[in-house]
Amino acid sequence: MNEYPLEPSKLGNELGNYFYQYRPAANFFVKDEDAAEFLQSQFSNELRPFESSRCSYGLWLNVKGKVVGDSIVLCEDANSFRVLSECSRGELLAAHMQRHIIADDVLIEHSDPGYIFELSANVLGALGLAAPQVGYFTQLKDGTLIKTIDNRYRLLISSSSERDAWIVKFNAIGCKDISEADFGLRRITAGIPLIPREIGSTDFPGEGELERGAISFTKGCYLGQEVVARMYSTGKAHRRLFVLEGNGTPPEIPLNLYNSDKKLVGELRSAYKNFDFWRGVAILKTKFATIGLELKNENMDAVVINPLRENYKNGSIL
Question: Looking at residue 203, which CATH number applies to its domain?
Fold first, then answer.
């Protein structure tokens, strides 16, 4: 096994501008006269004031305070909101909301998922695009440019023809398309968990340290809020996300992880190839997890490098 920690991927901003494209797992509308207050009562982050062009990143929790999924909520007007998520499935989020619509005048309308580009600020400058303020989005003639509190820029495109036109623009300024693995490595370096893959339905927000950026402690009540507040006030999450590294090809996930005493200490939730080794994220019991700890599963060895959120500052990835 190599010595640790190993250097992260050599792909970096110093080598030029990059973009990452994907189809969002959720892209639907919540509408009607009670939509604003209903969403405010369900979403973990602040949505007020309900003004056109505002957006907020946060979580959807169940009654036990565990993570159903995450999304950005975009306020298109006082009665219409778009729910957008990279990996949390739209059918699951919509069904979760539907269960809690009792006497509210709220309608859920699904739409084509479209496409999303994640961009660096340098790319916006090279294209002559003005960056929205944090927590706002700008409607372009051929897309929606979003800037959330974690300083990530997302460009939502509705059609494949518009997507292709944007790729031509990116190529013209020397902006390169990066893979899911390279984007995953950047995300890990930035200290951002992928929901619901790394923190999901069996986990509490505090186990992913999602109090930073995804939760409001001043907005008032929302579903799961009491559990979140209790864990935050006690500071006693018994599990935490850590970055792991191992040699060779990334293992299949999820994967149970054991220490040298054959004690089950956690689960590997993601893994990305990085040259001749891999880097990933695991949820581990904090009483066992230490930097440099070797973990095993059959023919796989890995080493704990650092807590995932240790490097989280402003969330910038590209």
Answer: 3.30.1360.120
177 in a domain, yes or no? no
pTM beyond 0.70, yes or no: yes
What pLDDT tens digit does each residue of the chain (318 aa) get?
Answer: 333 333 443 433 334 589 999 999 999 999 999 999 999 999 999 999 999 999 999 999 999 999 999 999 999 999 999 999 999 999 999 999 999 998 889 999 999 999 999 998 889 989 999 999 999 999 999 999 999 988 899 999 999 999 999 999 999 999 999 999 999 999 999 999 999 999 999 999 999 999 988 999 999 899 999 999 998 888 778 999 999 999 999 999 999 999 999 999 999 999 999 989 999 999 999 999 999 999 999 889 999 999 999 888 767 788
Domain count, the chain: 1
The 3-state DSSP class for residue 187 equals helix
Q: Cα(281)–Cα(272) distance, rounded to whole angstroms? A: 9
Range of the domain at 227: 189-311
**E strands present in 124-167:** 136-140, 143-147, 153-157
